[in-house]
UniProtKB/TrEMBL annotation:
The keyword Transcription does not apply. It comes from Simplicispira metamorpha. One of its GO terms (molecular function) is nicotinate-nucleotide-dimethylbenzimidazole phosphoribosyltransferase activity. This is Nicotinate-nucleotide--dimethylbenzimidazole phosphoribosyltransferase. Belongs to the CobT family. Catalyzes the synthesis of alpha-ribazole-5'-phosphate from nicotinate mononucleotide (NAMN) and 5,6-dimethylbenzimidazole (DMB). GO terms for biological process: cobalamin biosynthetic process. Pathway: Nucleoside biosynthesis; alpha-ribazole biosynthesis; alpha-ribazole from 5,6-dimethylbenzimidazole: step 1/2. The active site is at E320. Keywords: Cobalamin biosynthesis, Glycosyltransferase, Transferase.
Length: 354
């Protein structure tokens, strides 16, 4: 699929000298070697992303991308499409899980209408309150079970919108969230198409389907794969099978990666956007911290495809960015340990055998 603009390029972050410096600092903190476990690996990664041995996370941005899906009319979700716009209003009113967690952890919350079926009323930005950005490509995608979910032009617009969203936001950390009834179907379709994973293995209950509902969902998704059999390249698959929120998020990930922002990936749907972005620019994954492994069966399979090790495993399957927000304090702790924890020499503490 040809785009009328160039996608941001994510440069390889490999810097052997910086990596040696970071590892030396971690190894000489006042602790047994490797005693902080995966927190040390996280600190090393954050130093590599930000290009310093004194990493500081600044003005973190939680962005929730919202859109509706034509597939939802086929009964692939336990909830009606109206829940998408209702939850967007809940985010903005401060009542959703991600709203609560963003407040708790000092994360600026932005909600992006990428393609919600109902128009969301614009409102003035208020200090300390969630920000709403209107980047609606169309009021929901088409039904992918009978043809492409979006046109090439619509997909390109969504990608560009995501790039513009990130360019306008401050800070050096982007936390990904999403909302869209039917979007676990999109994630399953992209995993099946781009990674060859069977729908039987990667399709789950989503918002709460029973066993019969899951079988119905699998049948509909099989129809979508068949109806878009020629869409095999990453961008073509995204346009044919994806959602406006996933495409917008893909553009945001590519832009954030180019800017060397830390990208905190939430669950199954946000990982699907990262999967597409990484197929286009593999170095994107160097910037990604995967917050958790969700209860959706396809997510573990997608994490394996991405060779990602999530920080948490709590059975979460809400989405919204809730898992990314819960993992955020671990990133803060990793940076603080690297910056502030004393070395054996500075603290006057004897080393092993000393």
């Amino acid at each position: 699929m040809q785009l009328p603009f160039e996608l941001p390029r994510a440069a390889d972050l490999s810097d052997p000298a910086l990596t040696r410096t970071l590892q030396h600092q971690l190894d000489h903190k006042t602790k047994p070697l490797g005693a902080l476990g995966r927190l040390e690996a996280l600190a090393l990664q954050l130093g590599q992303i930000l290009g310093t041995d004194q990493p500081t996370l600044q003005a973190p941005q939680m962005v929730v991308f919202a859109g509706d899906h034509g597939l939802a009319a086929r009964g692939v979700s336990a909830y009606p499409s109206d829940v998408t716009w209702q939850m967007v209003e809940n985010f903005l009113a401060g009542g959703a899980a991600v709203s609560v967690l963003a407040r708790q952890h000092g994360l600026a919350l932005t909600v992006v209408d990428c393609g919600v079926a109902r128009d969301i009323a614009p409102r003035a930005a208020t200090p300390g309150q969630p920000q709403l950005l209107l980047h609606k490509v169309a009021p929901g995608t088409q039904d992918a079970s009978v043809g492409p979910a979006m046109t090439a032009a619509q997909c390109a617009q969504a990608l560009h919108n995501g790039m513009e969203v990130v360019r306008a936001l401050p800070g050096n950390a982007l936390l990904l969230g999403e909302m869209g009834i039917g979007n676990t179907s999109v994630a399953s379709l992209l995993l099946a198409r781009l990674c060859g994973v069977s729908l039987q293995d990667c399709t789950g209950a989503g918002t709460g389907l029973d066993a019969a509902g899951i079988e119905r969902k699998r049948a509909v998704l099989a129809q979508a794969l068949a109806a878009n059999a020629t869409a095999t390249e990453p961008l073509a698959a995204l346009a044919a099978l994806g959602g406006f929120e996933v495409a917008t998020m893909t553009g945001a990930v590519l832009q954030a990666a180019q800017e060397r922002r830390v990208i905190v990936v939430d669950g199954f749907i946000t990982s699907a956007a990262v999967l597409v972005a990484a197929r286009l620019q593999p170095a994107v994954l160097q910037r990604c911290v995967f917050a958790h492994s969700s209860g959706e069966p396809g997510h573990a399979l997608m994490l394996a495809q991405l060779q990602a090790k999530p920080l948490l495993d709590m059975g979460l399957r809400l989405g919204e960015g809730s898992g990314a927000a819960l993992a955020w304090p671990l990133l803060q702790s990793a940076c603080a340990v690297l910056r502030e924890m004393a070395s054996f020499e500075a603290a006057g503490v004897a080393t092993q055998g000393g």
